[in-house]
Amino acid sequence: MLYYVIDAFTETRFGGNPAGVVIHENLDEEFMQKFAAEVRFSETAFIKKIDNKNFEIKFFTPTSQVNLCGHASIASFKALLDCNFIEDNNTYFMQTLAGTLPVDVNHSFIMMEQAEPKLGKVFNDYDDLSDIFKINKNQIGDISFKLVPQAASTGLWDIMLPLNSKDAVNALKPNFKSLVEYTKIHDVAGVHAFTLDTEEGIALCRNFCPLYGIEEEAATGTSNGALTYYLFKNKVLSNFNQNYSFLQGYSMGRPSHIMTKLINKNDLRVMVGGNAVILTKGILL
């Protein structure tokens, strides 16, 4: 079995978000969970080839299985390119707990379609969020748009938390124990904090998911896919088939650039993609 460590959403080693990738034929989920806990990446992907176009991919954090993971998907197809299971400039399909999703590979740049985009509960009471993140309630929102905290998903539910400045985003120091309880109560994976106050890209983001053993993550494809849909529904974004860039990981010293795109006006979907760099590979005994 081949095992990779790959940095996703970056063009340089030690940037982006690292993921473990295992290409296997018959591993059981008990082994997958124990292996993910051992290597302790935010997510490890386990790939099983079905045929030349289709691959089953399962995603595990150190503590549990999750339906979908953007950066580990990007890493997975980088690994499949490297071991010649797929060819460049083609479309493939990955079977996940979030459904069967197409993945485009073009000049080694990988774009994956997300699950059906959805908006959920609006969080109008800012007291709990301001206490958990140790911020003033007046920092929540945006000057130019009437943005409020709201759950969103393109395969994994997160609370989109708009903040009015990059200083507010950079200063976040959440109480992780309280955040675990808050996300449990509201049945979401985590909180995706962002601001439109950025000179580069659409938004500067930070993602917190301690419920699944991840205090902070350097690049989250599903969360930025959900953010793209949230911003579309709030009339911040409007153009289809245009690449949008989101920044993440800067507070962790792992700069990440996540590209998204709105497609299919009549049956809207979000695509998420980026580059990836192989750090190491070997044999899993």
Automatic annotation (TrEMBL):
State the Pfam families in the record.
Answer: PhzC-PhzF
A Gene Ontology cellular-component term? cytoplasm
| Protein name per its UniProtKB record | PhzF family phenazine biosynthesis protein
Its source organism is Gracilibacillus dipsosauri
Q: Does the keyword Isomerase apply?
A: yes
Family of this protein: Belongs to the PhzF family.
Instruction: Provide the alphabetized UniProt keywords.
Output: Isomerase
Active-site residues are 43
Top-rank taxon, per record: Bacteria
Tell me the lineage of the source organism.
Bacteria, Bacillati, Bacillota, Bacilli, Bacillales
Q: Which SUPFAM superfamilies match?
A: Diaminopimelate epimerase-like
Q: Molecular function (GO) terms listed? A: isomerase activity
